[in-house]
Amino acid sequence: MMSSTNEEDPFLQVQQDVLSQISSIRPLFASYLRIRSLASSSTSPELTSARAELETALSSLSEDLADLVASVQAIESNPSQFGISDHEASRRKRLVQEVGAEIQDMREELNKNVAGGGGGNNDLPDPSSFAIGEGDGGDAYNEFEQQQQMEIMQEQDRHLDGVFHTVGNLRRQADDMGRELEEQNEMLEVVDDLADRVGSRLQTGMAKLHVGSISTAQDDAG
Which of 29, 34, 57, 96 has the most crowded Cβ, counting Cβ within 10 A? Predict the structure, then answer.
């Protein structure tokens, strides 16, 4: 858990974006390594495209990480002045160190495929410039990622609960409509039965009237 409780902290907002970017870049990096291992030439169009996409993503990530690094450097000497605990300050140092090291590793792999050993534009400070003690409480970066995953899973569970609730309501409504249709069908059957009986009586009455009119006519003729 993070020590800072300031939800409006710009560091935390940029941090979320950085972690999202690094999660998206990892599969790009893995794809680049796979394509490079299969490519017959460093000028392969597929390899060139994968490299360009990875470099663009790393460049954008480096810019955001540079903002985090500047923030860490600003509070490093006196975190409490900014309302940040020592533990949170250490976590932030570890975060930028680990993300910076991961970016550096990716850039080194990219440099292996560049003629003359040229590299990408890397304005980040050396990740090892942040001295972090061994007593900081474990890998805070991995802990934060696990926390983010747990929150995503909990959000999905809440959505599923809402779906189940909606489905239950629809099912109850369907049951009610089914019962109403059955009752209406029974009423229609009763009406049909009454109509049949009334029709039968009308036919009988009409027949009697017809017979009576014939008898009257015969009597008048006689």
Answer: 96
Establish if 176 belongs to a structural domain. yes
Residues 92, 72: contact at Cβ < 8 Å?
yes
Name every residue whose Cβ is closer than 8 Å to that of residue 102 and which is 6 or more positions away in sequence.
22
Backbone angles phi, psi at 107, to 5 degrees: -65, -40
33 and 78 assigned to the same domain: yes
**pTM of the full structure:** 0.48
- Same structural domain, 180 and 97: no
- Out of 85, 108, 138, a domain closes at 138
Q: H or E stretch including 14?
A: helix 10-38
Q: What is the pLDDT of residues 91-114, one digit of tens each?
A: 999 999 999 999 999 999 988 854
Which among 82, 103, 106, 96 is positioned nearest to 129, based on CA atoms? 96
C-alpha torsion 162→165→170→173, nearest 10: -140
CB 90 within 8 A of CB 133: yes
CB atoms closer than 10 angstroms to residue 53: 14
